[in-house]
Amino acid sequence: MYSFKDKTVIVTGGSRGIGKAIVLKFSELGANVVINYVNSKDKANELATMILSNGGKALVVQADVSNFDDSKNLIDKTIEEFGKVDVLINNSGITKDNLMLRMSEADFDKVISVNLKGTWNMCKNITRHFLKNKSGSIINISSVVGLIGNAGQANYVASKAGIIGLTKSLAKEFGSRGVRVNAIAPGFIETEMTNELPDNVKAEYLKQIPLNKLGNPIDVANACVFLASQDANYITGQVINVNGGMV
Ligand code: NAD
User: Could you report the per-residue pLDDT of 1-13, keeping only the tens digit for each?
Assistant: First the structure.
């Protein structure tokens, strides 16, 4: 059984979906959790209240990760409250899907700015703290499509492939300072993001999954726990696939 007692874990976009499962899992294992949200204030507060009533420690911070100053503030507030950060999980993400012929420049820019620049903003702002402490674990949530591409998602796929490049580069930069950086590439996980897809698209995805079922947010949370734990102390610069065998 893992323990994250006295460890502080920031989860961006932590109020729902995969982020919420990650927050709950780390809280169950004793961590102080920081729930970041951009719009879902009520959901973030509800989650924090649930954690506090179970004897856990939680902080809710509003921040748009695509905004550099907001990202910095999220980290500063965490350090103010808990004294340090041990694990940063960059989970925030959006989609604005369209075929290339119809994809607008604004939709490309928006997705890159939240998913890729947002991840960079958080990594940039935690760098000094982690290097000074000579410890820390960054886990960036990419996607299976960042590895294989997907029609109609050129913006999203570019952002998720970019996250993998960012992860591998920072792993090389930070390795000698005791800071590990890894990515998780989830496949098809049942959340609000995937609920928006039409049933026929979901059925098509299912055919490509050897385990013949969609993933659950907890499957991604469990991989985060492993990567953040001491059991993964010799693992950095890797992409862990959580996709039911799809790739
Ligand atoms: P979701 O839409 O439920 O969650 C995304 C979270 O990101 C939300 O909490 C949202 O508020 C937050 N967010 C959006 N813009 C933000 C911003 N500017 N600043 C801060 N937070 C912001 O979706 P999810 O399925 O839980 O996705 C979580 C992550 O997993 C995303 O990065 C997504 O790309 C990735 N992913 C999901 C799947 C899947 O099948 N669900 C597959 C692969 C990867």
Answer: 899 999 999 999 9
Mean pLDDT on 146-155:
97
What is the length of the chain? 247
β-bridge partners, 9: 33, 87
89 lines ligand 1 (CB under 6 A): no
Tokens matching residue 25: 């899992």
Q: What is the distance in A from the centroid of ligand 1 to the CA of 224?
A: 15
- Whether pLDDT at 140 is above 90: yes
Question: Cβ(4)–Cβ(228) under 8 Å?
Answer: yes
**Which one is catalytic: 37, 156, 205, 234?**
156
In degrees rounded to 5, what are phi and psi of residue 65?
Answer: -65, -20
The values of phi and psi at residue 43, to 5°, are -65, -40
Residue 205 is predicted with a pLDDT of 86
Q: Where are the domains of the chain?
A: 8-242
Query: 156 catalytic, yes or no?
Result: yes
> Which neighbouring-strand residues pair with 180?
137
For atom 19 of ligand 1, the residue with the nearest CA is: 64
Q: Is the CB of 164 under 6 A from ligand 1?
A: no
Q: How many whole angstroms from 192 Cα to the centroid of ligand 1?
A: 9
CATH number of 8-242: 3.40.50.720
13 lines ligand 1 (CB under 6 A): yes
CA distance 21 to 15: 9
Output the average pLDDT for the chain.
97
Alpha helices in 61-112 (DSSP H): 68-82, 105-111
